[in-house]
Write a structure and sequence with these properties.
single chain, 614 residues, mainly alpha, three-stranded parallel beta sheet, two-stranded antiparallel ribbon, 29 helices, elongated
Amino acid sequence: DFPDVAVVVTEVENLKRNLLLFTQIKDLEIPTILVINMADRMQLKGIELDISILEKELKTKIALISSRKKTGISELKNLILNFTELSTEPCLNASSIDPEYFDKLRKAFPNQLLYKLWLVITQDVNFLNLERNEIKNSFTKSHADLKRLQQKETIKRYQFINNTLKIGQTIDKSKATDIQSKLDRVLTHKVFGYVIFFGILMLIFQSLFDWSQIPMDFIDETFTSLASYTNKNLPAGEFTNLLSEGIIPGIGGIVIFIPQIAFLFLFISVLEESGYMSRVVFLMDKIMQKFGLSGKSIVPLISGTACAIPAIMSARNIENWKERLITILVTPFTTCSARLPVYAILISLIIPEKRIFGFLSLQGLTLMLLYLIGFGAAILSAYLLNKILKLKCKSYFVVEMPSYKIPMFKNVGINVLEKTKAFVVGAGKIILAISVVLWFLGSHGPSNGFDNAEEIVLTLNESKNIDKDEFENEISAYKLEHSYIGIIGKTIEPAIKPLGYDWKIGIALLTSFAAREVFVGTIATIYSIDATDEETTTIKQKMQNDIDSKTGKPRFGIATSLSLLIFYAFAMQCMSTIAVMRRESGGWKWPAIQFVIMGAMAYLGALLTYQLLV
């Protein structure tokens, strides 16, 4: 049932990795030809091969070909035709990883190939008339022992491959003449590489504010006008109020950020498609190792800027359990796209639209700083966890540097569309449900205070001379404060007052435990319930116009807004992320610990920020 000859096709740029499979096939004593493809790129990459030495060490015949230029094909055909002349001798003695164990295996089945027996035991496969259960019962080893032997085998094979390539292959990057090598010398430079990456980050965050401002203003005004139109033109009643005060403002609170979310995914997609993201991973790997993270942790941390859920799931490729656990625990610190709506609205309230040096947006720099704070918290937490959990071993990250290429417009467009759609639909479901609940809680209340709001306000203002609009505003505010949602907010207000938050912000904090981006939708719904029919101001304007009755200052001042930004930079407010963490960690222990620690960091950070600035 075996083939007459096996042809293993490798590529000249990844010969070390490709040769692993070649050595395994040789151990099956099949006549094997090694094909080294992409020979036309050897000069570009500064690669030189000594074919005679490689053939001697690998005990085979080598065909150096270029399928692109169609060279070396006839030589390969001749080798295939004369396969009987090929050596079937293995390249190395893999059984030396445990001589005693393999000697027993050889003696028990003297007529079978040793490597076939090993594959039957470790890979759950069968060859010819070998009975797997018979072998398993005779040579039982624990799963952990078999794993260790497999690891030893792989290490031994790579040691052999490395030694072979040392004498048979020469790579001189300085002689490489291709564009990729020239770019890599700059983009992965130990100094300029970081400078360029930092510059690209600055460009991204500058653009997020500059390019998205016009469409965001348009969306905000459109939803505000739609809510006003609905309220004025539909028959008065509960359904109209639900639409104009609950659903439309709530949905508008998330749709407004589609431009920024889309631009963020656009930049990430372009970096991935161009091949630059792999260089970023390579650069950051050197830093991450110093903080106790696996090199493979870079992928979850970077992908966490889009969403923590798939980022945490991607940590599965980290073999070491403790390193995987640390990665899972610190990934939520990285700023995901769900935080972007919160950051954007608060930054626009307190940071002026000024430019530094004529081209750097102060708002963009603030957003970048928040991303860096999140990333800094992640690696600092990883360092502390590494010390606490006392890691004894480390895994290593292997990444293939893809060729640079111009991003395909179609691929980038589909990626942006799908991810933006997933964000809006996923957040929209939660926001729609919460908006309906918030509207109900904000539009109803205990009869003794809520239903008699007009008489109570009238009594309180008997000695004052106020106009009709001001009177209606006071009634609306009194109703909201004495509604069910107002009662809930007033209950938690003492706990959040030291952070500079009132009961309205407290309600937004509570609802955003479902998903961070719900904060803006909740604020939009609460202020819409609080508003009179004639008001057509946008979400941003309503937040700007909210004045603290006790201090006479804006509710969302610098101290309060910065406190909120710090709170959301650290808080673990995403039920979906917690659920995924429970599944990936195998229980509620670690998600509960993480929730408490991140919540404490968020509260203390927000408290310190507000108290220092107030």
